[in-house]
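Retry 2 of 3 after timeout on previous attempt. Resubmitting structure tokens to design endpoint.
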């Protein structure tokens, strides 16, 4: 029990530290918004709306939160500004739960999914896609899973090299071909090797280009179709990686990728270096796609399973 509580405490410390810039920014703005006020009135709600919008929560999601806060304040007649943080925490946690963002606590794969469990990772260059794949491979390996990586981003030599380096760090095999090879062929080879070697998890990296939606759609569809020839259920998860530090630009990337392909989960990176952590709330709400992982630093262990209760507690605790 002592060991588990240590790791839980260590995870919480990484989360608190990673969200510290967002927390300081949000709390500072809220403090100014309610200065001198003893009750939650229209002025406080207007100021709170501005705080959330400027914290990259997004306009539509902000309006939902304000409406919830307003109704709670009206229902609980003696609600005052000192209770505002708890109220916000409750309502945002509830919003995340409604958006299918569940609380996770371990790096595992659904028991009913079969083997291998195939994750296809998408996202533009520079968001931390390959790094996230490497960290995820490390966590699955630590959990006792046999992991294979596929370097299907064949348009950039640096992308393949980076994935190979992460494969070394995580101590998992990386299947690759030459520069400019057909990405679908790489995916086929990766799944074939994984099946032959009884792997548990396969993670496929894809090209981080938004050259045009039709081209992207065709490329990702071809990769999916080729993978199904080896593993009929593949991909089990299409994970979109977004850079949390880009704020509203992350919304636009999510919009483009969800138009180009079915996205089933999100990983939001680089939250440790930004005050824009509110983007996690807005993206989850607007796209109704569960946030599965969050990146909180450069270290190989700094990828965490997203837990809405812990996230909101760190932000508003």
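Retry 2 succeeded. Sequence:
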């Amino acid at each position: 029990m002592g060991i588990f509580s240590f790791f839980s405490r260590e995870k919480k410390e990484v989360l608190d530290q990673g969200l510290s810039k967002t927390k300081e920014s949000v709390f500072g703005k809220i403090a100014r918004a309610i200065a001198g006020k003893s009750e939650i009135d229209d002025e406080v709600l207007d100021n709170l709306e501005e705080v959330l919008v400027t914290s990259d929560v997004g306009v539509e999601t902000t309006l939902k939160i304000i409406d919830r806060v307003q109704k709670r304040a009206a229902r609980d007649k003696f609600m005052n500004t000192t209770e505002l943080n708890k109220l916000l925490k409750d309502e945002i946690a509830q919003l995340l739960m409604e958006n299918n963002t569940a609380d996770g606590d371990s790096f595992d794969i659904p028991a009913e999914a079969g083997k291998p469990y195939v994750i296809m990772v998408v996202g533009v260059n520079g968001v931390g896609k390959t790094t996230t794949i490497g960290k995820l491979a490390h966590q699955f390996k630590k959990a006792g899973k046999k992991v294979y990586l596929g370097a299907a981003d064949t348009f950039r030599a640096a992308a393949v090299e980076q994935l190979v380096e992460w494969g070394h760090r995580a101590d998992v095999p990386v299947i690759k071909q030459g520069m400019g090879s057909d990405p679908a062929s790489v995916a086929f080879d990766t799944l074939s090797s994984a099946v032959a070697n009884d792997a548990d998890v396969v993670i496929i990296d894809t090209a981080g280009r938004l050259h045009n939606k039709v081209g992207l759609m065709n490329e990702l569809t071809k990769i999916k179709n080729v993978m199904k020839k080896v593993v009929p259920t593949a991909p089990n998860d299409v994970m979109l990686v977004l850079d949390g530090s880009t704020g509203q630009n992350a919304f636009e990337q999510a919009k483009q990728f969800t138009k180009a392909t079915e996205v089933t989960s999100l990983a939001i990176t680089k939250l440790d270096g930004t005050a824009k952590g509110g983007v996690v709330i807005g993206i989850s709400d607007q796209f109704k796609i569960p946030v599965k992982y969050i990146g909180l630093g450069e270290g190989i262990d700094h990828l965490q399973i997203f837990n809405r209760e812990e996230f909101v507690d760190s932000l508003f605790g």
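Attempt log closed. Residues 108 and 140 are 7 Å apart (CA to CA).
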